[in-house]
């Protein structure tokens, strides 16, 4: 565009110059008409000169004008090309704007459809959740309430109406629907653990004395486990200060856990002189390290303790990996 303007400006200047020269000559001829006539008549050679001027000037001016016309035509052609290009670009821009608007409309339409599908999906998920959600059993409801009081004492009444005393029992574990109640040597002569199923007990969330909750046992689960002189639930797994003698090994079960190489095991020893109870021993590190000893009075107590330990290990992802068998002891591995 700058070249175009520059070319047009040059042509205008040249035309103005040529017109100015012609106008000046015309004015001079009008003003000096008489003198020119006298000069021409007194100098005959001027006749030829004056006749020669138009003959020379006309071709020169025609040549100059022809060059100016060519330049003007070239500039006009370029201008027309620029205008065509501008029109083409303008047309393409309009098409692009229209296409962009069309794509934006399609995008908005797809977004609306996506929102509708997500809303339907959420409704379906809610319906599925309602369909698969099962109502809690009475035992599960009781277990959920008891878990709130783990580590606290409960005022316990047995099925025969007798009370366990004002010291109560500590709620130490709730595995599935089995509640473990622990009484330490601080409140009795021996540390004992009793077990009760959640659907075989009644829970009353009313404080009695120093106990924030009351439990009435309708039916016990298995036999109580004697933990000797243990002062707390945490001490139950420790071996007594003086180990009692053990008879022959009559049962063993090993367990493994994915991602851990060493195994752990449960071993049972017969009563012997100086110890009338079965000895239940837990070992870790492929049986090299003894981690707990329990003395069980009778097969029922032994089976209860074995089941409790095995259940704890199963919850912790330990699975049975072999061992001996003694059906007479009613010890069933899982």
Structural class assignment: alpha+beta
The CA-CA distance between the termini, in Å, is 93 Å
Mean pLDDT: 79
Can you tell me the number of structural domains?
3
* Secondary structure tally, helices: 5
What ranges have pLDDT less than 50 throughout 5 or more consecutive residues?
185-189
- Whole-number radius of gyration? 57 Å
Share in β-strands: 15-25%
Oligomer category: single chain
Helix content: 40-55%
Envelope shape:
rod-shaped
- Strand tally: 12
Task: Please state how the strands of the largest beta sheet are arranged side by side.
Answer: 5-6-1-2-3-4-7
Main beta sheet? 7 strands, mixed
Q: SSE order, as H and E?
A: HHHHEEEEEEEEEEEHE
């Amino acid at each position: 565009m700058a070249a175009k303007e520059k070319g047009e400006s040059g042509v205008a200047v040249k035309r103005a110059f040529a017109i100015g020269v012609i106008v000046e000559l015309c004015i001079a001829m009008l003003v000096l008409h008489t003198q020119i006539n006298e000069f021409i008549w007194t100098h005959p050679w001027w006749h030829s000169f004056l006749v020669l001027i138009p003959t020379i000037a006309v071709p020169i001016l025609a040549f100059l004008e022809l060059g100016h016309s060519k330049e003007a035509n070239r500039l006009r052609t370029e201008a027309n090309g620029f205008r065509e290009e501008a029109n083409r670009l303008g047309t393409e821009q309009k098409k692009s704007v229209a296409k962009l608007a069309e794509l934006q409309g399609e995008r908005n339409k797809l977004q609306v459809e996506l929102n509708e599908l997500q809303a339907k999906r959420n409704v379906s998920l809610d319906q599925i959740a309602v369909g698969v959600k099962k109502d809690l059993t009475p035992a599960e409801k009781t277990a959920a309430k008891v878990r709130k009081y783990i580590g606290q004492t409960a005022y316990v009444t047995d099925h025969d109406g007798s009370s366990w005393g004002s010291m109560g029992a500590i709620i130490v574990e709730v595995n599935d629907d089995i509640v473990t109640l622990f009484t330490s040597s601080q409140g009795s002569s021996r540390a004992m653990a009793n077990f009760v199923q959640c659907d075989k007990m009644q829970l009353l969330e009313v404080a009695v004395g120093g106990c924030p909750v009351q439990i009435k046992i309708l039916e016990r689960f298995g036999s109580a486990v004697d933990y000797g002189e243990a002062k707390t639930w945490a001490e139950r797994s420790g071996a007594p200060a003086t180990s009692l003698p053990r008879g022959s090994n009559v049962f063993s079960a090993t367990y493994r856990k994915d991602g851990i190489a060493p195994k752990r095991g449960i071993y049972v020893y017969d009563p012997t002189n100086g110890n009338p109870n079965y000895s239940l021993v837990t070992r870790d590190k492929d049986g090299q390290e003894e981690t707990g000893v329990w003395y069980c009075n009778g097969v029922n107590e032994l089976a209860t303790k074995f089941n409790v330990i095995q259940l704890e290990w199963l919850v912790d992802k330990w699975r049975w990996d072999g061992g001996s068998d003694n059906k007479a002891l009613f010890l069933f591995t899982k």
